[in-house]
Design brief:
The chain is globular, with a radius of gyration of 20 Å. It has 10 helices and 18 strands. β16 and β17 form a beta hairpin. The longest helix has 15 residues. It is α+β, with helices and mostly antiparallel strands.
Length: 358
Amino acid sequence: MKRRDFIRLAAASPLLAGAPALQAAPSTPTPHADGWRTFELRYDVDIPAQSSAGRVWLPLPSDAGDFQTVHALNWADAPAGAALNWDPVYQAAMFSAALPASASPHRVSVTAVVSTRDRTRGAAGPLRPLTADVARYLAPTPHMPTDGIVATTSAKIIKDIQGPDAQARAIYDWVVDNAFRNPKTRGCGLGDIKFMLESGDLGGKCADINSLFVGLARAAGLPAREMYGVRVAASKQFKSLGKADDISKAQHCRAEYFSPRHGWVGVDPADVRKAVLEENLPLTDARIVALRERLFGYWEMNWVGFNTARDFELAPRAREALPYLMYPYAEFGDTRLDGREPDHFNFKLSSRELTAGG
């Protein structure tokens, strides 16, 4: 998502104007027309009384490719200084509000209307140049280095395989074969891929497994990135790959790599491993084999993407950089409220699919 696109959206949205009514833009696709579906996402945040002043940040959906469009944003019960912000590196969109010390809880509601349609790999075309906005996704980050054991592992996977698409597929298959979903991992994991490879423990959740794909791809010279978001509806593929209504614990990140022939290509090895575990099926089951093939180049958009920011500074800055922004986050003095534990944070994120005229 480009910053100017979101500024265009925000200028037409009641979010910046502070109007209480949610208004969808006239360009809202008709639900189910050409595969488009439209969802309303709503945060209801109830922060306990705090003795110190602080701030809350909420990740917001973004325009993305030709498969996701944001139409409107709105908030209620927020302080006058509440604002829509972007980090300066990745342009991740976020709601942020400074909150005073208070003996009573802080309550904030933020709503977004977004349309999605299933994403498939684009048709092959002429070779695309490696532009600066793509090349940035070759860089290492603190949790995702591209040297040392990451580089040596990537080289062993690639061997003499030629061509970026074939190399990306080899990395994808290696991650599916060697990583596994660990249901005890907190939240979606941290994606500390150096630790995973050095320890030999390739278990985790989506931010671990898909970050492993991204880091190994970058080490091979393939631009790659995660996109952090949340499931918003039931899945046509497997029950375990969907969630609707109360989606406070339905966060999910995905991965994509840049193909000179196809542009950005969506993949999701983490969801292959999730289906293996939660559907209690082996990798050799025909349904998993089919899913594995499908999720190299396909995203089922019963999911809304937030951003591609990794190991970055919030806006305004928090005390420390975050590994990613996929959950609500708040700070009050030395107290941090982490949305990976929604029962402690007291927030609810809900999803509602909109019908024509509804």
